[in-house]
Every structure is written in structure tokens, then in C-alpha cells.
Write a structure and sequence with these properties.
about 400 residues, single chain, 7 helices, six-stranded mixed β-sheet, alpha+beta, Molybdenum Cofactor Biosythetic Enzyme, Chain A, binds molybdate ion, elongated, about 30% strand
Length: about 400
């Protein structure tokens, strides 16, 4: 039997680092920046007001020591105004949040510190009751980012704030490590597409939807092929036509047909075609396969839904993330006490579904060890990892826990 580490090494050797490509911002989330992002403009691009109110020259407010000061309003400056004139001495300009500061203006007076203005809006007069010091509530040009500065460095994972700053700097696209395209093909004559009626002995096909979501969650691009019955020629034909229709894929991920039954379609089809099948010392997820089919990496996951998911977490997710340049490829891990006892098979690393109580700092086993217990998996938010040489843990003993999404 292979150890988990041995099989993980076989899987990760299938991939090489993906190249850098340019993608629109709406496709960048979850990927990794492939090159430094250097600002070509200042942010903010111009000095602007942080408050709605009036802007004045400091010299025109010296009278405030004796009481309110009333000034004529010489212009109105909404956000987006592009023809702002210099502020005439002895006047105020009405100004809105985000609007450009007129030349000569030094003080921003929030509207709450005025009478709100008299006469035509943005004209007439304004009575100023008090004022902040010059410069307060003014957002300086380049105060956030200066043109020429490296805002994001190569290798940064891209999330909403990184996309936000790229857009703010005027970038419509980002250089990213290309996401891996993963073809997902489930096998099983008993399978029925969700949304259709179930016959006797049939079950709904759930692995491809689950694995597609897992691939997307890891930053990859899933391509789901229509699942196939346990028939070798049908399986091989489906694989090549789906890969061709997708315009080539970086990985073929199958589920089912890899254990010891009489109709192990994946094993039968791929054994002499470059895929090696092995038992891995883990539970669930013992039957595994990995290799290449005509040069394309192939990973064959067991069909039991929980086995499929756990195998993805243990082998596929870290390998995909590493190839796409993610700095962190593993799940966050903690070591916390168990709320109850736990048994584990000797000689196998057990990945047990669990619920982590972050407030209490404890972990609770969630359902039994059976690899068909998808309902329990769906209620779990963590996995307890029990080492191969541990067969029992008591309540209160610490366990290593992976925190899932
Ligand atoms: N004699 C032995 N039998 C089994 C062994 C063994 O070592 N000796 N290993 C068991 C273990 S452990 C696992 S895990 C499974 C793996 O089986 P396969 O990968 O060949 O998967 P199937 O037999 O096709 O299916 C297993 C199970 O999962 C259901 N399934 C499969 N695909 C899907 C899908 N896409 N969506 C939903 N459910 C699916 C299927 O109906 C079966 O119930 O083998 C054990 N047997
Ligand atoms: O490897 Mo299987 O997943 O134990 O049921």
C-alpha cells in the first residue's frame, strides 16, 4: 500500500507551473498575480473633498474667532466636474464628496457646520459657523498610491480588494497564472442526472457537480462531461470527445470504477494506457489512480461521494493550487481537543468529517466513517486527520483539524 505522501508526490508530479496570461477582472478572483502590478496613475488621481459641504481659502475664515462668517458662493462643484475654476478669494464653493478641489481652496467645511447655503443651490451665500483646520477632509493626489509604485507583487492571490485596486488604477485586465482546465467525468451505470426520475436501483449522479465546485473553489476551470455507464469503449470515447470539445484540458478527473468489482470501467480502460492504480493507506479514499493518457494528466478518484471529495482535498486541491502558483496550498489547520472519542483503522490515515466550534475551541466528529455519508459531509465544516498509528482518541485529546470552506 502507498502512503498518503507517496501518492501525493505521484499526483503533484503530473503538473508543471502554469504560464502567465491576461484575463478580464471578472475572471481574476481566486487566481494568482503572474506579474507585478505597477501603477500608471496616482490614486487619488487629483486632490478631492472627503465631505459634502463648502470649500474656502483659510484667509477668508479668520473672522470665525468672532462668530459665523458669511461668504458668497462662487461655484458649484459636484463629483465628476471637469472644468473647475480656481476659487476666487473671498468666496466659497459648494463641493461634494469626491469632487476636485479648486485651485486655491484650503479648507473643507462640512455642510453640517454651515446654514446649508441661502439662495440658489450652489450660488447665493453660505454662513459658516465653524471650520476644521486646512487640509482636513482633503484627499491628496497620490495619497493612496503613487504612479510608478508596485501596488501588488507577483504571486499575490487575487481577491475582491486586489480586483478593486486594479480597477481603480484603470486596469481592465490582470496578468494571472493561467487556471488549469479540469475535465470531470463520472462513471456508473446506476447513475441518473438530477432533475430526472429515479428507477429501482438507481441513484442521482452527484460527484461531477461536487467535483466541479471543488475545482472552481481551488481556482481551476471545471469542464463537466456527461457521465457514462460502466463500459470501456463508451468511457474512452466520452473522454476523448469531451477533451476535444473543450479544446484540450490540463487534467482529466474521473470518479468511480477503480476498486475491486467485476465492472471497474476506469481501471479496465486506463491500466494499460498510462495510469497506475494503487491502494493508499487512508480512509476514506483507499483506491486511487494517477498517470497520463496520451500526455494528459489523469487522476482517478473513487466513486463513493465522500471518498471522492476527501481524495480531492488531500491530493488534487494542493496539486492544482501549487501549479497555479498559490502561495498556500493546504487548508488552514488547527490542533484542538475532541468533544468525544474517536476510533480509526490501524495503518490508515483517517480523514474524519467534523464540526469545529471556533468559540469553544473544540472539534466534534460529524457522522460515521462511511464514505457514502454525503449528508453528514455536507453538514461538516472541518476534517479531523488521525495518523496511521493512532487507533483511538479520547474526548479531550487534541486532534489535527483541517478547516474547510
Ligand atoms: N471488494 C472490494 N470492494 C471494494 C473495495 C475493496 O477494496 N474491495 N474498496 C471499497 C472502497 S474503499 C471504495 S472507496 C469503493 C470505490 O469504488 P469505485 O471507485 O470503484 O466506485 P464505484 O464502485 O463506481 O462506486 C462506489 C459507490 O459510489 C457510488 N457512486 C459512484 N459514482 C457516483 C457518482 N458520480 N455520484 C454519486 N454516487 C456515485 C456508487 O453508486 C457506489 O455506491 O469501493 C469499495 N469496494
Ligand atoms: O476508500 Mo473507501 O473511500 O474507504 O470507502
Amino acid at each position: 500500500m502507498r502512503t498518503v505522501e507517496e501518492h501525493a508526490a505521484v499526483v503533484s508530479a503530473l503538473f508543471s507551473p502554469t504560464p502567465t496570461v491576461s484575463v478580464p477582472l471578472d475572471r481574476a478572483r481566486g487566481l494568482v498575480l503572474g506579474a507585478d502590478l505597477v501603477a500608471t496613475i496616482d490614486l487619488p488621481p487629483f486632490a478631492n473633498s472627503a465631505m459634502d459641504g463648502y470649500t474656502v481659502r483659510a484667509a477668508d475664515l479668520t473672522g470665525l474667532v468672532d462668530g459665523p462668517v458669511t461668504l458668497p458662493v462662487s461655484q458649484d462643484i459636484p463629483a465628476g466636474r471637469t472644468d473647475t475654476a480656481p476659487l476666487a478669494p473671498g468666496t466659497a464653493a459648494r463641493i461634494m464628496t469626491g469632487a476636485p478641489m479648486p485651485d486655491g481652496a484650503e479648507v473643507i467645511v462640512q455642510v453640517e457646520r454651515t446654514d446649508g447655503g441661502q439662495g440658489e443651490p450652489g450660488a447665493g451665500t453660505v454662513r459658516i459657523d465653524s471650520a476644521p483646520a486646512p487640509g482636513v477632509h482633503i484627499r491628496g493626489r497620490g495619497e493612496d498610491v503613487l504612479a510608478g509604485a508596485t501596488v501588488l507583487t507577483r504571486g499575490t492571490p487575487i481577491g475582491p480588494p486586489q480586483i478593486g485596486v486594479a480597477a481603480a488604477l484603470g486596469f481592465a485586465e490582470l496578468p494571472v497564472r493561467r487556471p488549469l482546465r479540469v475535465l470531470i467525468l463520472s462513471t456508473g451505470t446506476e447513475l441518473v442526472e438530477p432533475g430526472h426520475d429515479l428507477g429501482p436501483g438507481q441513484i442521482y449522479e452527484s460527484n461531477s457537480a461536487m467535483l466541479a465546485a471543488a475545482v472552481a473553489g481551488a481556482g481551476g476551470e471545471p469542464v463537466v462531461a456527461r457521465f457514462v455507464a460502466d463500459d470501456v469503449p463508451t468511457f474512452l470515447a466520452a473522454l476523448s470527445s469531451a477533451a476535444e470539445a473543450a479544446g484540450g484540458v490540463d487534467l482529466i478527473l474521473t470518479s468511480g470504477g477503480v476498486s475491486a468489482g467485476a465492472f471497474e470501467v476506469v481501471k479496465d480502460a486506463l491500466t494499460d494506457r498510462g495510469v497506475e492504480f494503487a491502494k493508499v493507506a487512508m480512509q476514506p479514499g483507499m483506491p486511487q489512480g494517477a498517470g497520463r493518457l496520451d500526455g494528459t494528466p489523469v487522476i482517478t478518484l473513487p466513486g463513493n461521494p465522500v471518498s471522492s471529495y476527501v481524495s480531492f482535498e488531500v491530493f488534487v486541491r494542493p496539486a492544482l493550487r501549487a501549479a497555479m502558483g498559490q502561495p498556500v496550498i493546504t487548508r488552514p489547520m488547527v490542533s484542538v481537543p475532541l468533544t468525544g472519542p474517536l476510533d480509526s483503522p490501524a495503518g490508515r490515515r483517517q480523514f474524519r468529517r467534523a464540526h469545529l466550534d471556533a468559540a469553544a475551541g473544540t472539534v466534534t466528529v460529524w457522522g460515521g466513517p462511511g464514505s457514502h455519508l454525503l449528508g453528514w459531509l455536507a453538514g461538516a465544516d472541518a476534517m479531523i486527520v488521525v495518523p496511521e498509528d493512532v487507533t483511538h482518541l479520547d474526548a479531550g485529546e487534541h486532534a489535527e483539524v483541517w478547516i474547510l470552506d
